[in-house]
Amino acid sequence: MENLIARGMQITPSCCLCNGSEETMGHLFLHCSFVGSIWEDVLSPLRSHGLSMSNFITVEALLNAWPRARGTEFGLKVGKLAPYAVIWSVWRARNDSIFRNRTRTAEQVRKEVMAFLWNWMANDDQRGDHHFRELLLDWVSLIQGIG
Ligand SMILES: [Zn+2]
């Protein structure tokens, strides 16, 4: 243990995204203020449903509670993948900050979330009827079928 500390490993590291709380899985992916703005944006079509990160202790609980989509098949699939894209993008932002000293803004992470979603749909037939800019600019109307 002392050897690890000597090599710079922190035992209870603080969150590198908000520089605040202790970095637990629950904090990093759910309750971090930096990440909260990304969730809020992704969930913006759902605001009336009151899905709040503070209601969840684990990522698994959030995934289990993630609302099913209605509307177009494309919107449905993207809506289903959205929480995974947020988690993946947050993990990348966290690792780049720690290991490469590269920081991102929440807006950059949000755009990456949409880029991952778009790329993950690359082999989907419905993607041809849509444009990447819909994810960036028309997210609410694309996902508003969720409920
Ligand atoms: Zn944080």
TrEMBL record:
Q: List residues of the Reverse transcriptase zinc-binding domain.
A: 2-39
Please, which domain of life does this record's source organism belong to?
Eukaryota
Pfam families attached to this UniProt entry = zf-RVT (PF13966)
Q: What is this protein called?
A: Reverse transcriptase zinc-binding domain-containing protein
